[in-house]
Amino acid sequence: MAKAENDIIVCRCEDVTLGEIRKAIKEGATTIDEVKRITRAGMGPCQGRTCRLLVAGEIARYLGKPVSEILQSRYRPPVKPVKMGDLASITGEDEKGTGRNFDCKRQEEVTGQ
Fold first, then answer.
1. Exposed e or buried b per residue across 6-26, where buried means at least 16 C-beta atoms within 10 angstroms of its C-beta
2. Main-chain phi, psi angles of 99, to 5 degrees
């Protein structure tokens, strides 16, 4: 491993290098989620759309397996960035069924009537 190779940026969003990915794998990370937890690769605005396959490839290379055998990330909603205003505009019933929600702009409770 050349020093220049370890300095290659794998995750541009979180500025994670190939050396950091390799270190996490050598320390026992064998899934994309484990590497993600240790290095933050895949936690940026693109949510791993850019680096996920690069990380999977590096895990596969280290373990001597095909990429198809590497456990893929678990996606949890939201899988794409969501504007806070979109979330704030959602209304619904509370657990008591009263139809109350909060208007984030006024930061006060509003009844659904």
1. eeeebbebbebbbebbbebbe
2. 75, 20
- 80 alpha carbon, distance to own chain's centre: 10
Query: Which secondary structure element, helix H or strand E, spans residue 109, and what is its range?
Result: strand 108-110
Mind listing the domains of the chain with CATH numbers? Answer: 3-69 (1.10.10.1100), 82-113 (no CATH)
Query: Is pTM beyond 0.85 here?
Result: no
For residue range 5-31, what is the model confidence (pLDDT) as tens digits? Answer: 999 999 999 999 999 999 999 999 999
What burial class does residue 2 get, using C-beta atoms within 10 Å of its C-beta: 0-12 exposed, 13-18 middle, 19+ buried?
exposed
Average pLDDT over residues 95-100: 57
- C-alpha 54/C-alpha 10 separation (Å) is 7
What number of CA atoms fall less than 13 Å from residue 42's CA on the CB side? 24
Tell me the DSSP string of 8-36: -EEETTTTEEHHHHHHHHHTT--SHHHHH
